[in-house]
Structure formats: structure tokens, C-alpha cells
Write a structure and sequence with these properties.
3 strands, GMP Synthetase, Chain A, domain 3, single chain, three-stranded mixed β-sheet
Length: about 90
């Protein structure tokens, strides 16, 4: 299973999102020291979920990063996260 699909599955199961998107932006990092050909290593993730209600921005990011722990132990290098409540998204 490709990493993007794994991340989408993790988000669906862990956050019951109202909306989410997962973009592989690995190619934008070509030429950087950590760049590896044909490796999904850099992502931009947006998650909109009620689970973020009454959580600080840092707590939301910790939740997302914790859910991706196994991917970070592999060759996932970087994730940009936007974690919003449904109200913030509207």
C-alpha cells in the first residue's frame, strides 16, 4: 500500500473527519539532502474533525503526529498539518 493511502486510512479511522486532504509534496523537495527518488516522504495534510474541539493547536498536531508514528519510523520525513474544527473550517 502506498504511503498516501496508509495516511488516508489512519486519518479516516482515527479522526472521523468531516473533511480531509492528503497531498504528496515529496517532488517539491528534489535536491534537498533527504530527498529519495520514488519515496513518498513529504506531505501536506488538512484534517477537519469534531475531535479537535476544545484542543489547542499544539495538541491537535501532537494527535496527528502520534497517529503517524509508524510512518515516521519508516522514511516519512516531513508533514505539514492543518487541523481544524468543523466550525473553524466553515
Amino acid at each position: 500500500m502506498k504511503r498516501r493511502s496508509k495516511i488516508e486510512k489512519i486519518i479516516k479511522e482515527g479522526f472521523a473527519p468531516y473533511y480531509f486532504s492528503v497531498l504528496d509534496v515529496s517532488e517539491e523537495h528534489r535536491g534537498h539532502q533527504s530527498f529519495q527518488e520514488n519515496v513518498e516522504s513529504h506531505f501536506e495534510i488538512v484534517i477537519v474533525s469534531k475531535i479537535f474541539n476544545n484542543k489547542s493547536k499544539i495538541d491537535r498536531h501532537r494527535m496527528v503526529n502520534q497517529s503517524l508514528k509508524e510512518e515516521y519510523l519508516s522514511d516519512l520525513h516531513s508533514v505539514t498539518i492543518r487541523a481544524l474544527t468543523v466550525e473553524e473550517f466553515s
